[in-house]
Design a protein that fits this description.
The structure holds two protein chains of two kinds.
Chain A (H helix, E strand, L loop, with lengths): L1 E6 L5 E9 L1 H16 L4 E12 L1 H17 L2 E5 L3 H9 L8 E2 L2 H10 L1
Parallel strand pairs in A: 2-3, 3-4, 4-5
Antiparallel strand pairs in A: 1-2
Chain B lengths: L5 E4 L2 H6 L1 H10 L6 E6 L4 H16 L3 H22 L7 E8 L5 E8 L28 H8 L2 E7 L2 E9 L2 H4 L10 H8 L7 E2 L5 E2 L6 H10 L10 H9 L3 E3 L4 E4 L7 E7 L2 E4 L8 E4 L4 E2 L1 H6 L6 E4 L4 E6 H8 L5 H47 L13 E8 L7 E9 L2 E9 L3 H21 L5 H17 L8 E9 L4 E7 L5 E3 L5 E3 L19 E4 L4 E6 L1 H4 L11 H10 L5 H16 L8 E8 L4
Antiparallel strand pairs in B: 1-2, 2-3, 3-4, 4-6, 5-6, 7-8, 9-16, 10-15, 11-14, 11-16, 12-13, 12-15, 17-26, 18-19, 19-20, 20-21, 21-24, 22-23, 22-25, 25-26
The chains are: A alpha/beta, B alpha+beta.
Chain lengths: 114, 621
Amino acid sequence: MKMTIEQLDDALTRIQLDGRLDLEGTQAIDQRFAYATSTQPLRVAVDLSSVTFVASIGLRTLLTAARAQATRGGKMVLFGPNAMVRNVLETAGIDTILPIFNDWESARAGLHAG
Amino acid sequence: MIGKAHEQVSTPAERSQARAACAVAAAAGLPVGVHHLTVTADSSAVSAASAWIRSLGGRSGITPDDLFRLDLCVSEVVMNIASYGYAEGAERVVDLHAEGAADNAGIRVEIEDRGAPFDPLSVPTLQFSPPTVGETRVGGFGIQLIRNFADECSYVRCGDRNVLTVTIRRSTAAADGQYFGGRTDRGSERRRNSAPPAFPLARSGGQLAAREERTLQERRRLGFISGCRLFRDIPYHLLEELVAGCPVRSVTQEEVLLSPGDRNRHIVLVLSGSMRVHLGSVDSPDYTEIACGECAGEMSVIDGKPVSAYVVAAAGSRLMMIDGETFLARILPIPGVARNLVEALTDRMRRTNDRIIERFKSSIELQALQRELLFAREVHAGMVPERITLEPSRPELQCSGYMRPARQVGGDFYDAFYMEAGRLAVVMGDVCGKGMPAALYMARTMTLLRSEAMHKRARTQRQHTLDIAESTNRMLCRNNDAGYFVSVFAGVLDITTGLLTWVNAGHPAPAMARGSSEFRFLTGPRHLLMGVSEEARYTVGETALPPGSALLLYTDGAMEAENAQGTMFGSARLLGLLNEAKNRDAQAIIDTAVEAVDAFAEGRAQGDDLTLLALRYAGAL
């Protein structure tokens, strides 16, 4: 599981996740991800296009981060999940509380609009 | 994890009896057989089960989406069992069985545990339509996902077991697809496709035998032989006569079959049980296992040289001894056998190479680690003064420090210095973590505390203390991706008024004796560790020190020192000994504390640094 954080010029943060968001993968990034997403208010987009698998533990991590941003006045969106990953996110109802965009351009527009 | 999980396919006898079932499994997409996995229900179980399912699925040709669903359901069930299934101390086992679903169109996995009866499917479905993300409850998704992604799931309590069955049907997209496209199990493919062997067959002795004349024993042996790596894809009828006459040995107790220097005349094939190959000595812990269906002895048969290792058969094994001459003259020329043999030898060579590389790597890593620890120790020793020398030395104040790093260098530190005439800074801290990164973070913390103390001089002592703490914390939070944290007690003492102002960020409360009273722990505002949040705000504590007061700062290594019985040194013991040494000078207080901790630990190596700093304030002179 890889995680890359980019601070972009327009005050946005883009976090790219790469690999399987299963128990092992989530544990590998959990602390860094929580640190990057929970300590200060941000406009953050999480790139899921290279995530090949997601289990409930991964959903929990995404949701914890989203909740931390909501309480701090920041905003978090997801983008680019493959069909099966999107299917899991929607089954768990994540899409009702976290916007999911198809690609980076629409995610960026969504963050600027919010 | 590897040691705890083991995969097996049913034995050949079971396999021949369950041939009909295997055909179903093959058609459904699984490599032939019912596949089993047993894992220990701990945090590694999920990865082990998922890897197993993906490996089976990868060989079966089901679509990636169906495999995703199967992987998800199995992972969630196993995670549930690993998290909640077993009481503390129970034997934690998860058994998984995978096979083709009975109606030919999917894969069914049974997951069993022996925990308390629990039907996960009885948990009510969660509702997910919260008004805002801030109010969402996090978690509880697992069962929801299983319900939605499995085509069928059912629970049954069976004896002392919970059995959850998950079925994934192949999606319609794949229904007409090639089930054995891509990687396939060659054994099952051959069984499906090749024409049955021609009958009648020649038996040894020149007679002809019809299929029905073969005994069950012979058929089992043949069925098994053709599954061995060496004879894979070789038609039965080419082997039958050659192996029919080979003796089979039953090993009742562990037996050394071959020793270095022996002349070997047989290839030994493991029919059941296993053998071990030891290099060096016969009981060296480092060995290669030769599992059921694999063979040994082929190298010395081929080159005619003496055996180079010990080959030990495990008790209860059954071994077929294939005569070396027969092997070279009659078996090796059979098309396919040579290729299988080369494959097996290559595989063995690769495994040996991997082990050598692995061993080489870990020895390099160990060296690097030791070097790193040495550097860390140097950084540590270079940063923290061995004894505290206050400049200028003043009669109002004595200050002594002591630090003894544990074996694995920790991140303790202390410091005391005058920031300006009459205003003393006294700090102590403990970085959470070990080794080089912790030592560097410690160095960073000390440098920041010193520079903030020297450069941010507010008008009031109180504001000065607050500035030191807040700006140090802010700087520590920046570029701290690795997530290091540090406990800090930062105090400022005005030696003319005796006022001590301080901030405590997650550090154990210092012990203080004010004037002639007893030592007590300093009460007052406590805060989060430094390095966690830039937004942390601190409240300054204020304590007036009458002349004759003493203060002892320490890290948790002192309190948590353990004796042979596992009892911790603890706060009561610390206060007790401090009160006995109450009227002595700062160095004597330190010496008493160190002696007491050492006497308590009775020479037992301690896991944490022991760090102390004592101040004695005589009052303005």
